[in-house]
Amino acid sequence: MSGDTFNSYGSGDQVAMNGSHNIGIVKGGQPLPAQEAVEALRRELDLLRGALAPDAARTVDDNLPVVADGTRPAAQRRAALAALTGAVAALGAAATPVRDLIEGLRGLLGG
Fold it and tell me: Which helix (H) or strand (E) holds 25?
């Protein structure tokens, strides 16, 4: 999450990087609904980062790139969403926006 960079290339292509890993590309500057939801999820998780226990923060760091990787099978991405749900569970109502985004992404991924 920290260290993410977003670079634009050519005619509006945007590449999202986490360290040295490409975690997404938006062709022509037109994000897909799942990509928009992943970015919204990333922003919400960034807001909650300080409230997360260290293990929960590691779970977020390990699983958010899986969710963001559109080349991964939907089943892997759904499993990563489940892990993210567990990571924020202790935050109660403060995590409602995250849980709502996760539910939306599950729907987009067919689960």
Answer: strand 21-26
